[in-house]
Amino acid sequence: MDNSICQVYEDIIQSLEEEIKLLAEKYEDSQQESTFFSDEEILMSIKSFQREFQGESKGCESPSDLKAQLESLETDLSFLMKFTGIQFTSHSKKTVEKTRNRTVRKHRLSGNCHSLSFQLEFQLLEMQNKESVSAVISDLSIIMESGEDSDVSKFVSSTEEHGNLLTFFRSLSSYAEWYEHRRCTFLHFK
């Protein structure tokens, strides 16, 4: 009986040690992220935030103005979704690497365009110099239900190779619209 009790305690101790190790790694990661910024950058950021906050508090909008602004934004979003047919259902991003002038984030998007669903995964490299910020897309992976259409597969492969998201969304919008028209037409004749 003593051996079983000892084993239980040893198992508990081992699980606690693993949990401590994981928490220590998380703490280290958060410390590394916070050390990427110098004290001067942090102070500038705080001052900028304070200026924005003071500007907002001076021109404090009434709840009715905020509600009207929100309704306007929702109307614009609804228009864009109807115009392009693209509707995003989920988005996630994770910072992979962050230095003073360079940030790499991994993005995952999923959604649908008319009746076609798609999923995207890519890395976005943002490089900042004194005057501007440039962004480069890499490791683009597109998963799309293309059915038996080999042209769509070729297009997806080409887009992944070149990493051009704008071309992908423009073409997807047009293709999905006509795909929907063809589908409805074939249903009509069945």
UniProtKB/TrEMBL annotation:
Q: Give start-end ranges for the coiled-coil region(s).
A: 6-33
Q: Supply the alphabetized keyword list.
A: Coiled coil
Q: Cellular component terms, GO, for this chain's entry?
A: chromosome, centromeric region; nucleus
Q: Which domain of life is it from?
A: Eukaryota
What GO terms in the biological process aspect are recorded for it? CENP-A containing chromatin assembly
InterPro entries attached to this UniProt entry? CENP-P
Q: Which Pfam families match?
A: CENP-P (PF13096)
Listed name of the protein? CENPP protein
Q: Which organism is it from?
A: Ciconia maguari
The organism's lineage? Answer: Eukaryota, Metazoa, Chordata, Craniata, Vertebrata
Give the encoding gene's name.
Answer: Cenpp
